[in-house]
Amino acid sequence: MRKSATFLIIGVILLLVETTWGGLFEYGTLRFQGIAALVVWYGARVTFLQGISPVLALGVLACAFTVLPAWIIVSHVIVGYVIVRYVVRNVMLGMLWQWMLLVFFVASAMIVFIMTASGVPDFVWPWGILQAGLDALLCPIIFFLLDHLDASVFRSVREDA
Amino acid sequence: MGILVALTVGRGLLGISFETFFLDAAGSLQRFFSLPAGAVVGVWRDYAELHHVREENAHLQREIARLKTELIQYREYRSIYPDLLRLLDLKKQADRPLLGANIVGKDLVPWVDSVTIDRGRRDGVGSGSVVRAGEGVAGQVVETSLFFSKVMLLTDPASGIAALVQRTRVPGILKGAGKESCVLNYVEKGSDVVLGDEIVTSGTDGVFPKGLPIGTVSAVRPPSESDLFMEITVTPHVRVELLEYVLVEVALDSKYEHAP
């Protein structure tokens, strides 16, 4: 429950950062994005049933930040989550580069889905794949922030208890 | 006693009285003692002044920081002033009520050209309201809440505007083509369109009023034998990447009072 709250709070913060300051670091259609990394981080730490509701909630919240139809936005987050759950159930991931590879794979799938569904599949190459690569490169920072934030939140909650 | 008398008599003979002798002696001693005292007072005064200088320095640094902030604000005002003037002119010339709006956010999806503005249903903005910037059409409102609205910019691939070439009245549909460019579709092969032609809204889509400036033709690619239509690239007058303020059309029958 607390992990889900952290996931949603960080998700909303990431959405706000991407849609307000994201333009400052934009090149072409490349932009700082952390949603794929967030979904991977969260998806690897909960069971499928525990995580599906918060992921759905994040998808619904994300709809407020785009003009794309709601079903596309919600579905693309769920697509990412399902892939993460499948991979972490069947593959052992230990090294950082393996997690980065997973983020690249998940981000690619999410981008392909969202680009195809929104009618711009021709953007997948090179922009979509480059964006997935950027997501993978930046994911250690996101993971580091999430791990530390999560740990500090849990510690303070435990201390309060 | 004898010595004192002798000194008095002797000095009296030399023209030096007893009082002046003691005055000289006392004065010399005072001067001797005043040297270190003066030095101590000087050091103390320097210290006090230094302390004052330190305070003054801190005060001046605060003042410099404040003035720098003010300068940045003035520069910011000066840089946005021409844009605001253009918007004001446009607002005065428009035949429909227009409302100034700030852009508060971009779309979550990088390849979607849409923005969020801080005007909503409360201000009389509705779905389909035309959004303009100083130089021409910027887009249209696609979704509104009470206080905010989502605007699809004319460069978004999903955007479509009924347009025509102002010089020859050749009609077409202006579609967004990503960052900073649009294409004019469905223009018949052989139509009279040349570089630099002005593209304006035709008004036939029922959304954009007729005659609003959109952009200029920046490329005309000759069609192949099999093509039915010309390939025309249009560069919008409005640089959507740099948009900070826009004017949004307000519904005439809005039940809400228009904000200033």
How large a portion of the residues of chain A is in β-strands, by DSSP E? under 5%
Can you say what the CATH homologous superfamily of the largest domain in chain B is?
A: Rod shape-determining protein MreC, domain 1
Helix vs. strand class of chain A: mainly alpha
Distance between the termini of chain A: 15 Å
User: Globular, elongated, flat, extended or rod-shaped: what is the shape of chain A?
Assistant: globular
Largest interface (CB within 8 Å) is between:
A-B, 26 and 20 residues
Query: How many helix segments of chain B?
Result: 2
- Give, in order, the helices and strands of chain A: HHHHHH
Query: How many distinct beta strands of chain B?
Result: 12
Number-wise, the strands of chain A total 0
What is the correct CATH architecture of the largest domain in chain B?
A: Beta Barrel
CATH top level class name of the largest domain in chain B: Mainly Beta
What is the H-and-E element order of chain B? HHEEEEEEEEEEEE
Widest β-sheet, arrangement of strands of chain B: 1-2-5-4-3-12
| CATH topology assignment of the largest domain in chain B | Thrombin, subunit H
